[in-house]
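Quick note —
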Amino acid sequence: MMKRLSILDLQRKKQEKEKIVALTAYDATFAALVDEASDIVLVGDSLGMVIQGKENTLSVSLEDMMYHTRAVDQKLKKAHLVTDMPFLSYQVSMEKAIESAGRLLQAGAQSVKLEGGEEVCDLVHRLTRLGMPVMGHLGLTPQSIHQLGGYRVQGKEERKKDELLKDAKRLEEAGAYAVVLESIPEDLANDITKNLRIPTIGIGAGRDCDGQILVIYDLLGMDVSFHPKFVKRYAHLSQTIEEALKNYAQEVKSGLFPDDSHVFH
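Predicted structure written out below.
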């Protein structure tokens, strides 16, 4: 039986200068499809938008994250499974945060991801001391979208650049095994990556991060209305799916489906 990648395996990839491939998945079917290509599979709170149709991630519950983690865990054989800690699962108290992280690990996650810098370092330290691996997340932090004023590139000002670099170092010192850098300038992501011993995983953070992550639906081109600059579409499945459904509907209406090869005798 194939062994799932651990946080030590991921950190070794940085040391050996091997790029890390990360993707999201939210159900068992996609988990099986992305497993072979991925080093990391993230059950992201982005499910609030791509699965639940919400405008942001703030309404996603811990129970939602546990449900989807269980589904993805069923089909992964190789990739490391990390799950986002959703809004209010770790901001209220240390005790609630520890319980929330533990429940996600019980659901099948190998590690948890949470957003923030210095303000979450005590929590990161506590969780890792308790044996719960933590991935950090800096830059555009979607759970703070109202504070940030929208989905905007972060770290353009010198003061903010210095702050993000310091936050990355603090997360590493607190025990984070990796950090996601979202929507920041490439030169800043390069500085952070060079100054950390732990891997950086970029999304809209340029070419120099130790790895890259994309939302699986964005990569496959399943929503033609959503196309930020950092997303590359490797397929255009919305067109393929729409055409397949159109053909199915036409064949049902015309009586062509089911034909003799699709019925029992």
